[in-house]
Amino acid sequence: MEVKITLSGKGNGSTYPRLSFFLCILLYFWVLFNPVNGYSMKHCRIRESLNVSVLCDGRNLNAVPADIPLLVTSVNIAKNNISQIKSEDFKDLKFLKMLIMYSNRISHVENGSFSDLVALEQLNLAFNKLTSLSDQMFKGLDNLTVLQLENNHISSIASSSFQLLFSLKVLNLTSNKLHCFKELKHILQLPSLLKLFIGNNSLNSLQSQEISNRSIGLTELDLSRNPLEIFSVTADIFPYLKKLDLSFCGINGSMEWDVADRYFLSNVSSLDLSGIHMSLQGIGSVLQSINFSLASLGLDKIGKDNLINVACHIPTLKTLRLQCNNFSSVSDKLLQSCTQVTDLDISGNNITDLSEAAFRSIKDLKTLRLGYDGLSSVPNATRNLRTLKNLDLSHNIIKTLGCSDFSNLKRLEKLYLNNNLISNLEGCVFLDLRALNSLTLRRNRILNLGEAFTKGLQHLKSLDLGFNKLTNIRTNYFKSLRSLEDLALYDNEIKTLEDGAFVGLAKLKNLVLLNNVIGKSEIRGAVFKGLRSLKTLNMASNAIKYEKDEQLQQPPFTDLSSLENLYIFSQHYTKYMRQSCLPSNFLEGLNMLSEFQAGNLHIAYLHPDTFIHTPQLLSLDISQNFFHALSPELFHPIPKLKRLTISKTELESLDFLIEANLTQVRFLKVRQNKIKWTNETVLHSLPALTLLDMQRNPFICDCRNAWFVQWAESNSQTQVAYAHDYPCSYPDDLKDTKLLDLDTHSCSVDLGIFYFISTTSLVLLTLLGSFIYHLLRWQVVYAYYLFLAYLHDSKRRNRQTPHQYDAFVSYNTHDECWVVRELLPELEGEQGWKLCLHHRDFQPGKPIIENITDAIYRSRKTICVITHRYLQSEWCSREIQVASFRLFDEQKDVMILVFLEEIPDHQLSPYHRMRRLVKRRTYLSWPRAGEDTRVFWQKLQVALETRDWPAEENPILTGVERQ
Ligand SMILES: *[C@@H]1O[C@H](CO)[C@@H](O)[C@H](O)[C@H]1NC(C)=O
Ligand SMILES: *[C@@H]1O[C@H](CO)[C@@H](O)[C@H](O)[C@H]1NC(C)=O
Ligand SMILES: *[C@@H]1O[C@H](CO)[C@@H](O)[C@H](O)[C@H]1NC(C)=O
Ligand SMILES: *[C@@H]1O[C@H](CO)[C@@H](O)[C@H](O)[C@H]1NC(C)=O
């Protein structure tokens, strides 16, 4: 390939830009692979899926990390000790969309700190120590839509601090120290603001005339827990308001309500007046002024039962919340007028007396919440609610369930019975709940399921029996639950699983048996029979232990052909049995298994055949065991593995990975092992690795880890999680240093840089050489002879030789005849000059170029006898070159050109220099045959007589310039 590069602006005009483009590409690649631009951050993790996220929450940071990559879209630095944000902290993060900084100690934000965050959409500065918001604080956040400033100490807001937040939709200022609603004026007028949360401040009045006289786009306003004395709306400034929270507002029942026109808040559909400090009359007038579209009303902790009547006269009301109102008895009358309500919450009322007809007038009750109500049995009042879909009876003191408790609830879909005292379940209890799809019986005292799930409940999808006292899962226990997908049996005392315990659960996807006392003999093929769809089996924290490295007669999971996730970590051990084994065919049949968590099993060895049945395995966690080493063969059957976690074992080296062939592993976590150094070969054997976590290993800080240090800092594919925090464990005098602070320069000569520089220079020189040759060929050749001539010139000068000859005659051998017959007799014979002729006067044995130079310099003049042949002869041209050098060098007119033949210009053109000489200088032409030669000889004589004049001033020959 010929690379043609023109350096001047002439010629091919586009080549120069092409060159600079090429150089830019070179530079770009150099920058890209520049060893100082690593991938990992000092104190944070980078997560890169579709976008780049930086995670540094809870790392005890005192300042915003300085090494956040520029392409980041999300940064989480919550829960640190950062006390201020500096103007350069988030410089140039032009792609950042989410910045999470809650729970720090930020009290000061320098002006313009966020000004580069043009793409930021969410900023969370909640739970900090900000006291005021300054004018310039949020400058530049043009795209911010959500701003969270709750739980600070903000008491003042500069009038233009929110000025440019054109996109802001949601602002949370809950739990601050704002006391003047007027100060929020400019916030309320933000063009995009939809939701404003200013609960729990010190605002004592809202008066519309102080805020605006035109309408505001707000749809949601939370004013709860402010000591509001007056809420006054005298103009239609909230026409779009849908949700208004005034709960716990006012003090001492004094809050005043002044809404001039009942149409002003006519769009409000959700209103919370819970715990409001207002007179009964006041609340009544509130309800009357908001009765166009009100659908949801909160009247918790208000303690005034005559309000219910007023509320229920709002024809659009559907959802009514009446928590914690101390209605210890609910009579027939209380809810009589609430006929249109569909969603009723009377939790937390300590109801002891609930009239059977309490809900009778409610025609279409769908959701009824009776939690925390002190009920000791399912009340009669709920029995005939045929429209009911959700019933919450949680957190009561119900001991038993009767056959007719739910028998009429044919449409019930969700039933919450958690946190009661139920110990026994009759077979008839749930029989008629045909539509039920979710049943929660968590935290009761159930010992025995009896026949509860052997009939009915054919649409049940989710059953939670966690935190009960079951000890035995009997055959056919869940026989009729043919739609069940989730079964939770965690935190019971299950010891026995009978054969066929899960028969009928053909659709079961998740089975949670976490935290029981199931032993190895209970996990048998016959137990799990029929679980065709099971995807996740969680048997962590049980008592599964195998003493010997046995091969099981009948592996337990052979029926679970759909199982994808198996968790068996943390099995309980007695102090007499510290070691366990995992049978080599334990996983047989689990063809689809993709995740296996087998940490904390007290095993010291894994048979190389352990995973031969699970070729789809993607994620493996075998942490907290006692492996000192693992065999590479263990991993050969699972080539798809992506995540490997072997933390808190006793591993001393990762060398087993070299031959493990784990070409897909992306995440490797080997925290808290005994790895002292990391071998280069190991990490090269994991070509897909993107995250390596080696926290809390006892690293040696010497040259054995030099490679790892450099790699951790510089490689652009794998981040070493929190690498900058890895301490040196050895040698003792470096115990306070960090591994990455190790000075690796003394460990090796950096051959890479050496090679880089030398090859680059070589390439550049070659390029330069060819350019120069290509463009300046003649100059180069000339310079060469110039140089040679210079050498001889200096020699000659040293010798101080006087001119030995009058003229050196340069000619081609073919023209010797003319020289000998015509020139020699005339010049030496007639005119008496002493000539130097190469055939006569050259010293034999001397290099030819030396002879030529000598001859030229020993002669006053050089006569070039020019013919076609002369020009073709290489040596003759060189004589011209050297002579012209002398001309150039000594500024003497030494050259006499004698043209024996007519030579047209174009034939001279290849002899670039000659042509220039002829054009610029003088020459003599030998007359044509028959013409008189006397003038010629005379001119030649004059030319030979001329002494040492500067070339241009030759007075005689100027007349014969060739055009
Ligand atoms: C700001 O948001 C708009 C709309 O979501 C988007 O088109 C634009 O690219 C964003 N600007 C920046 C700088 O990300
Ligand atoms: C606003 O902050 C309060 C207090 O932390 C919180 O309870 C509420 O959910 C927040 N609202 C939004 C929309 O973030
Ligand atoms: C390791 O993987 C390579 C390529 O996938 C394969 O050719 C080779 O046989 C594997 N070696 C072992 C021991 O499985
Ligand atoms: C890395 O491991 C390979 C294979 O075990 C071994 O040959 C090599 O010497 C080790 N290199 C170092 C620096 O320990």
TrEMBL record:
- Which regions span the lipid bilayer? 753-776
The UniProt keywords, alphabetically, are: Cell membrane, Glycoprotein, Immunity, Inflammatory response, Innate immunity, Leucine-rich repeat, Membrane, Receptor, Repeat, Signal, Transmembrane, Transmembrane helix
Q: According to its record, how does it sit in the membrane?
A: Single-pass type I membrane protein
SUPFAM superfamilies for the chain? L domain-like, Toll/Interleukin receptor TIR domain
UniProt-annotated location(s): Cell membrane; Membrane
- Lineage, top-rank taxon, reads Eukaryota
What is one GO biological process annotated to this record?
A: signal transduction
Pfam families for this protein: LRR_6 (PF13516), LRR_8 (PF13855), TIR (PF01582)
Q: Which InterPro entries match?
A: Cys-rich_flank_reg_C, Leu-rich_rpt, Leu-rich_rpt_typical-subtyp, LRR_dom_sf, TIR_dom, Toll_tir_struct_dom_sf
Q: Name one GO molecular function term.
A: signaling receptor activity
Gene Ontology CC annotation, any one: plasma membrane
Q: Which residues form the signal peptide?
A: none
Q: Where is the TIR domain?
A: 803-944
Family classification: Belongs to the Toll-like receptor family.
- Protein's recorded name: TIR domain-containing protein
Q: What organism does the record attribute this protein to?
A: Oncorhynchus tshawytscha (Chinook salmon)
